[in-house]
Amino acid sequence: MQIVINGSFWSQPTVGIGQYVHNLLPWMYRLAPQHRYVILLPAGTTIPALPDGIEVLPVKIGGPRQVAKVIFEQVAVPVIAARLARNGEPTVLFVPYFAPPLRSKLPVVTTIGDLIPLLLPAYRGSWAVRIYMALVRRAALHSTHVLTFSSFSRTTILNYLGLSPDRVTVTYLAAGEQFRPPVDKVAVQQLVAARYKVQPPFIYYVGGLDERKNVYTLLRAFALVRNRYRHVTLVIAGRALGRDRRLFPDIDQMIADLDLGLAVRRIDVPVEDGPLLYQACTIFTYPSRYEGFGLPPLEAMACAAPVIVSDATSLPEVVGAAAIKIAPDDVAGWATAIARLLDDETLRAELGQRGMVQAASFSYQRTAATTLTILEQVAQALVIERKQHREEIG
């Protein structure tokens, strides 16, 4: 079998879909090296190191960036994949993000992590974005099979896109192998203190700063407990990726309005330091209102951090019984949970242990195995279809 992959996100290993493909593809090759893997990349893309067994085929597309993106996804990828299939091998096109081609001569397996741009009005963007999302929504209906990251997202896809249940499969994400408990937590805290000027104890959040991430609830909850815990800092890692204040609230203004001042520390964390902050923090918090999966809480649990999350969308499914779950807009509930963990070292240790067990129940090996099973089933159906066609005309 040949697996032709839309590799648009291979050059972005720090974003969610980039992390997904960087962890998934090496495991796919390890589990099934007999298949041929070809990743299509826009020409000129910076290419991080590729795993063994993955071939790269650069694709040159001219024109403005957004136009080139659509041409790559909707024209170049399906056409080149079809050409590669001329060698007679069963070939499946794998699109690991929400951008399947509207037309393809080959069966298409598409990963849809969530439907946020379709479901949340604030994320629908400009008219151009809306047209694009209408296109890929229609294209998703023609996908042979859809993969998604949680049962919550699967149910949403079934209800919103109207796909039949046998065409949508859950393939969970997992924390990368670099996320593990600290060997010496005090030493890690000292390193974080030196590098980021953050002393323990501290509460940690990492992620987007857009509206659905609900950082304002965290800030308001911290403001309620601040006077009692003057020695505790709230550390926020992340940055706004746009200027639209409806989508990206002014976090600094919120901090000033709540009179939190130096009690909140905003930092940028390079990808290689990601595990350090999880390992060093006293509590990890994730108040998001909407997730298709929710990787940061799982990464934090893999590092033995006690976790508080919203009891919304996919997050309860990800953390199980290994985290405290609070309604996303229950500011008093968040303040109570934070105070409870700050006061109870035993509970923090218990949640840390339970979190490690929960995080270990997810693995990219299993994700890759399920993905391969679907791809192989689709390829086998193609073989049967071709055989029946030959018999009909023969």
From TrEMBL:
SUPFAM superfamilies: UDP-Glycosyltransferase/glycogen phosphorylase
Lineage top rank: taxon: Bacteria
GO biological process: lipopolysaccharide biosynthetic process
Entry GO MF terms: glycosyltransferase activity
Lineage: Bacteria, Bacillati, Chloroflexota, Chloroflexia, Chloroflexales
Domain Glycosyl transferase family: residue ranges: 199-355
InterPro entries: Glyco_trans_1
Keywords of this entry: Transferase
Designated name of the protein: Glycosyl transferase group 1
